[in-house]
Amino acid sequence: MAMDAREDNLPAQAFVLGANHLTASVALRDRLLLSEDELPDFCRALLRVPGMREVVVLSTCNRSEIYGIGAQPSLIRPLVEKLWGASKGVSEDEIRNHGYFHAQGEAVRHLFRVIGSLDSMVLGEMQIFGQIKEAYRVAVEQRCVDFYLNHLFQSGIRVGKRIRTETAIHEGAVSISYAAVELAKKVLGDLKGKTVGVVGAGEMGELAAQHLHKAGAAKFVFFNRTLATAEKLAAGFGGELCLLADLDKRLSHCDIVVSATGAPGIVITRAQVQEAARHRGGRPIFLIDIAAPRDIDPAAGGVSNAYLFSIDDLKNVVNENVALRKESSRQALAIIDEEAARMEGWFQGLDIVPTIKNLRDKYNGIAEKEIEKWAAGQSEETRRKLEALGRSLLNKFLHHPTSRLKLLGERGDGKRASYFAGLFFALAEEEKEDGQG
Amino acid sequence: METLIDTLKILVPLAYLATTGIYAQLFFSPEEKRFSGKAHLGLCISLALHTFLLVALGYNLHRCPLGTFGEGLLFLAWILGVIHLLSEWLADSRRLGLFTLLPATLCVVAGVFLLKPDFALPAELRSSLLVFHIVASLASYACFSMASILAGMYLVLHGKLKHKNFDITFRKLPPLEKLDKLSANWSFLGSATMVFSSVIGITWVRKDGLAGMGLNELAIYLVLAVFLGAGASRRLFGLRGKRHALVILAGFMVLLLTNLYGTHGFHR
Asked: How many angstroms away from the CA of A184 is the closest CA of chain B?
């Protein structure tokens, strides 16, 4: 499809074309995913699409999106779908049926929602902020970004920062493992240097150990019925290996105990916890039971300085945090509304830019002709003075019309202002004359 | 000057009440960041007005404004405010300001009502040693107050953890271990300051030969016994956590009761 040759004079519009976790299956998202190596070439190829002026490509496991600037986004859309589909072996229909397309105000709002993590699979996760910054960096590196997307993405990054600092949208753990770490921190404070006892060599125990390790826990003791099964796990964490039978002797050394065995009955009794707490000289012991059926006697929660949490308790923590994030998302939406309105004003203000340019060009031309006429046969110094006078008068005469036009543009009256400016200053006639000439 | 003092007597409690209100919003609102700056500004304004009031009182009375119960309460509130301001800078404890400023505000309101601007101190009480003694005593009261506030927070968080109550208070309170350590540290500092204050007090009584002025030994020994005992048993027998918090609160109750009973600190 050929673009109109005059489309360069049309006002620029932002658009986004993409598919995310809400619209496309994991399989389709995987097929649409663009690797780090593919991104630079794909960005450059998109820039060659007729009508496309600027482009940024964001591709993560949960979303692949193309942010573009063009005069007629609806005409660019099928061309981009075709290129994307061809490069990833996906049909255009699949992209169209399982994706989304937003233009101008909606596209801006979409970017702000994405960067603010309101559109993420896990509400409030902050990884997306870094991913967008990276996508923007790649596009800048490939010279795919210019005036419009620069402004849009810089504003987006500012919006992301505002949401992060002004709301609690990213606060509180929203996964079971992180909730366990958060609770451990609530009891023990900093986890650096704390000893973790992991009872059972299953996946759940390993996952909890990984999170605690990331949070700073230094020493790990793995308890299992058979040492051979837990050997690899202990080696992975540089931990100590103990038989389950040694639990009595070693429990008091652990600040945190994670129990996740597949045993049918109680593995850690109240008496064992009581004895451990007695030996700990008043220091608290934090117990997490993520086994089903339960490993730790629920009565152990009543022991002084022992804090016991089951998988259900952790789920409750997660639910509370999710609710809190949802509450904060309302505040984040208000920030997005405010910033999107500002952005819209900026875009509308740009509608008037060609008119202002024409106006200045026209009067500049007139001034130059007059200066040329009056400077003929005069000295070089006189010519310079005449030129300076011409520039000065031009700036003064055009100052008010220009600033008024800009103001009208920002208020959304750009098109009307262009029409009347064209009428009053005879800009269209000038263009016609130029065309004939 | 009296007009200025009268104006400040109205402004200071109002500033503290407003600031405490902002700190309450800061603690209970999920949008903590909205109130953070306002709370800090409120505290700075309150403390500035409070300092002006103390300086104006001193200037007007031609003595250190620590001669009456009301003046003592005002000074105690000022120390609590300064302690909180310092801990905001040093330990990022702004979200807990409600708990420090609430007792400070109560002391300010009570102190302003109990002020006697024309109270002339008897000649035998116009001693710099006495001033040091009172300042140290009030500092120890402030430290004990901080220790008991933290101990109270410990008990609240302990209860929430035991009962799996993950509400906003749970989220806002600092970790148990931190509360336990901070409470113990303030208690130790309070005990040390109180011993120091007692030594100065005894020196002053002996130096000036004030036969009629004596210490209510039982009261002071009781308070010191509780707080020093809490510190010692923590070191020697591992008395931490809930039991330690309960002992600290008990010590603070004894401190309050002895003061209410004696009305002039620990003096007969």
From this structure: 9
CA proximity to B238, closest of A80, A162, A281? A281
Torsion of CA A365, A369, A375, A376, to 10 degrees: 140
A61 counts as catalytic: yes
> What is the tens place of the pLDDT at every residue in B155-203?
999 999 999 888 888 888 889 998 998 899 899 999 999 889 888 888 8
Out of B78, B106, B121, pick the residue that ends a domain.
B121
Q: Is residue A186 part of a domain?
A: yes
CA dihedral A134, A136, A138, A142 (to 10 degrees): -170
Looking at the structure, tell me whether residues B136 and B114 fall in a common domain. Answer: no
Q: Is A172 left (phi over 0), alpha (psi -120 to 50) or beta?
A: left
CA distance B248 to chain A (A): 16
Domain extent for A48? 5-166
Check residue A430 and give its pLDDT: 53
Residue ending a domain, among A166, A201, A221, is: A166
- Pair (A73, A213) in one structural domain: no
Among the ranges A113-117, B23-27, B83-87, which has the highest mean pLDDT value? A113-117
Q: Specify the number of domains making up chain A.
A: 3
At A5 the pLDDT is 40
* A199 vs A225: CA distance, rounded Å: 9
Query: Which residues constitute the domain of residue B102?
Result: 1-121
pLDDT tier at B217 (50, 70, 90 boundaries)?
low
Chain A interface, best mutation among B171, B185, B237, B246, by max A CB count within 10 A:
B171
In a 10 Å sphere around its CB, with 0-12 CB exposed, 13-18 middle and 19+ buried, how is residue A309 labelled?
buried
pLDDT at B260: 67
Same structural domain for residues A264 and A381? Answer: no
pLDDT grade, residue B213 (50/70/90)?
low
**For B6-42, b where at least 16 C-beta lie within 10 A, e where not — what string?**
eebbebbbebbeebbbbbbbbbeebebeebbeebbeb
**Domain boundary, last residue among A264, A285, A314:** A314
> Of B53, B86, B121, which residue sits at a domain end?
B121
| Residues in chain A with pLDDT values less than 50 | 1-6, 433-437
Q: Is A112 on the interface with B (CB under 8 A)?
A: no
When divided into structural domains, chain B yields a total of 2
A421 within 8 A of A409, measured Cβ to Cβ: no
| Interface predicted TM-score (ipTM) | 0.78
Q: b/e for B201-231, b at 16 or more Cβ within 10 A?
A: beebbeeeeeeeeebbeebbebbbebbbebb
Contacts of B234 in chain A (CB under 8 A): 282
